[in-house]
Design brief:
Strand 6, helix 4 (about 85-90) and strand 7 form a beta-alpha-beta unit. Strands 4, 13, 14, 15, 16, 17, 18, 19 and 20 form a nine-stranded mixed beta sheet that branches. By secondary structure, the protein is an alpha/beta fold. About 30% of the residues lie in helices and about 25% in strands. The longest helix has 19 residues, at about 210-225. Helix 5 crosses helix 6.
Length: about 400
């Protein structure tokens, strides 16, 4: 459920007309709904109230400081994957004891920064990383709390680029190697193993892969108990999908009910890392029609948003619903919606049935709140879009539009 709806024949973001926002702030424009972010976080967090749990929002989905601050004020922790995301989380006022650090390539400086901040724990992805964390922590006179990311070899049945829990993926360690890594962690003087981590992929539309992975984790948990390791946290990651087209992902309540049956009697705290399921449908990308173009084989709608603004269609072949901001009731046509980038892969939609549009009109790309702006770039020297948050009738410029001077500010 989101707060982008038609009222009096025009698309609104909460109480404001999207067309008015586009005229005032320009396009391409990311528009986020505060009410949707709050609703989705509450829906996710409340689904696990029967369990000791911590909801650590996945910063990579949408890392805007205003978004992070809104969620932190609701009690969210953060799942981070870089020193930059740590900086953002701390700047947004997140409690460091609610921050977990994932990612396969943590550098020494980043490890040092996280230890200095006293984060909850590192999700360790390799044996070499464990040694590096232990060495840095000992040098600093600190104790690093860690979990080992287990790769359970479970097929999440999602796009191969966002599958993370199978043997061929770069993430985590197989069960046998994970056990050896925990044994080594027990030997390191500046390391304390406090958790088990697992993340099998993104945009999952069924809970079955989660439950399959959980069974393997619980068996592994018992092995650690037998080794004398008292694990406090089980981190199941994120990955619950959203509706882009016709997907019917489970509600978080269904996920929570399924997990409660298996975890209720264990003395652990469950950590969840939702990103897309909180931010995805909380944002739209608004774009202006620049030209329309008819060729013998194709009808193109050329807009001012491009693959540098929203790369998911080009990168993953992903579907984003596109609709008129002010529907005019014209007949539909089969079109490709494309941007100005000099690449044939620069498209927002292909072979899409859309009402005929004209230059100067606005279109909205839905479900753009996650992996939209965070994956954007300056390709073709295009300034990145403005981001705004609508909260009822109020607007916050969460990130101003970049200028040409911004493009060259770091160059000599």
């Amino acid at each position: 459920m989101h707060f982008f709806t038609l009222k009096d024949g025009e698309l609104h973001a909460e109480d404001l007309k999207v067309a008015d926002l586009a005229k005032e702030y320009g396009t391409p424009l990311y528009v986020y709904s505060a009410a949707t972010l709050r609703r989705h976080f509450k829906a996710y967090d409340s689904a696990f109230t029967s369990l000791r749990h911590m909801t650590c929002y996945s910063v990579k989905a949408n890392s805007n400081l205003s978004v992070l601050k809104l969620l932190a004020e609701m009690g969210a922790g953060m799942d981070i994957v870089s020193g930059g995301e740590l900086h953002r989380a701390l700047a947004a006022g997140v409690d460091p004891q609610k921050i977990v650090y994932s990612g396969v390539g943590k550098r020494t400086a980043e490890i040092r920064e996280a230890l200095e901040a006293n984060i909850l724990m590192f999700n360790v992805e390799s044996q070499q990383e464990l040694e590096r964390i232990g060495s840095v922590a000992q040098e600093m006179g600190k104790t690093a709390r860690i979990s080992v990311r287990i790769n359970p070899d479970v097929d999440p049945k999602t796009h191969p680029y966002i599958s993370t829990g199978m043997k061929k993926n770069k993430f985590g360690l197989d069960l046998e190697t994970s056990l050896a890594t925990y044994r080594r962690a027990k030997e390191l003087p500046a390391v304390e193993a406090v958790g088990i981590d697992c993340h099998i992929g993104s945009q999952l539309t069924t809970v079955e892969p989660f439950l399959e992975a959980l069974e393997k984790i619980l068996s592994f948990y018992q092995q650690l108990c037998d080794m004398g390791l008292c694990i406090e946290y089980i981190d199941l990651g994120g990955g619950l999908g959203i509706t882009y087209d016709e997907e019917e992902p489970p509600h978080p309540a269904e996920f929570g009910e399924a997990l409660a049956k298996r975890l209720a009697d264990l003395p652990i705290t469950l950590i969840l890392e939702p990103g897309r399921s909180i931010a995805g449908n909380a944002g739209i990308l608004v774009t202006e029609v620049v030209y329309t173009k008819q060729t013998p084989s194709k009808h193109f709608v050329i807009v001012d948003a491009a693959m540098n603004d929203l790369v998911r269609p080009s990168l993953y072949g992903s579907f984003h619903r596109i609709a008129e901001v002010a529907p005019a009731g014209r007949p539909e046509e089969d079109v490709d919606v494309v941007g100005p980038i000099c690449e044939s892969g620069d498209f927002l939609a292909r072979d899409r049935q859309l009402p005929r549009v004209e230059s100067g009109e606005f279109l909205a790309c839905f479900s753009a709140g996650a992996y939209g702006f965070t994956m954007s770039s300056n390709y073709n020297s295009r300034p990145r879009a403005c981001e705004i948050i609508v909260d009822g009738e109020n607007v916050t410029v969460a990130r101003r539009r970049e200028t040409y001077d911004d493009l060259t500010a770091l160059e000599r």
